[in-house]
Each structure stands twice: as C-alpha cells, then as structure tokens.
Protein: Protein YhfH
Amino acid sequence: MVQNIIEFFKNLPPKKCAECGKQIEEQHECYETKCPQCNKL
Structure:
C-alpha cells in the first residue's frame, strides 16, 4: 500500500502559478499559489 501512495505523489502534475500559469518550483511543504515573480507585484 505504501508503494501506491508514493506512486500517487510522484505522478501529480507540477504546480502552476495561479496568476501567470508558469510552473512553480516548490518544496513539499510549500502552500504558495503564485510564483516568486507574481508574488513581488
């Protein structure tokens, strides 16, 4: 069962910025919805 959970998280699509739509480089504990460029605005 643990293997299924690991595969689930590996197969999640990359997170995208809610503002511009660019892919966000994030850590697992990150809750940001905007990329660093859009966050500065």
User: Anything to note?
Assistant: The mean pLDDT is 84. DSSP finds two helices and no strands in the chain. Residues 1-41 form one domain.
